[in-house]
User: Which sequence fits this backbone?
């Protein structure tokens, strides 16, 4: 079981934003912006395009629902969707509130947020989901 599967199963603590029987959304612990959320399938699949068409469609619809909640919780121009990352062999979508393209620069220094701030952010998203 990979780290994201353990997070979705509750074996590793996370700041849960939303969930369904097939998908799980939680805050990135190294966010580039407040509200930076990861959306994963509960099923272990390494590459998003290895998902069959129906599963991928459901995944995108779930991510959209999270993005709508995120935009309500953190008013912004748009919510960026980024499929990026080789560190964890588990498909994941990054959802990031943005007012400019600079808000989605993964090379910039990550935010340092307290556990209290992270919990408040996750709750705001959950309450809007």
Assistant:
């Amino acid at each position: 079981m990979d780290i994201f599967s353990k997070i979705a199963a509750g074996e590793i603590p996370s700041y849960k934003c939303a969930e369904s029987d097939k998908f799980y959304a939680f805050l990135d612990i190294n966010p580039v912006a407040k509200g930076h959320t990861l959306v994963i399938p509960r099923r272990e699949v390494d590459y998003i395009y290895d998902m069959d068409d129906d599963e991928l469609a459901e995944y995108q619809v779930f991510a959209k629902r999270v993005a709508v909640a995120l935009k309500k919780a953190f008013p912004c121009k748009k919510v960026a969707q980024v499929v990026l990352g080789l560190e964890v062999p588990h498909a994941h979508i990054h959802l990031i509130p943005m007012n400019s393209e600079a808000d989605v620069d993964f090379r910039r220094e990550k935010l340092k947020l307290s556990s209290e701030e992270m919990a408040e952010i996750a709750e705001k998203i959950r309450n809007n989901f």
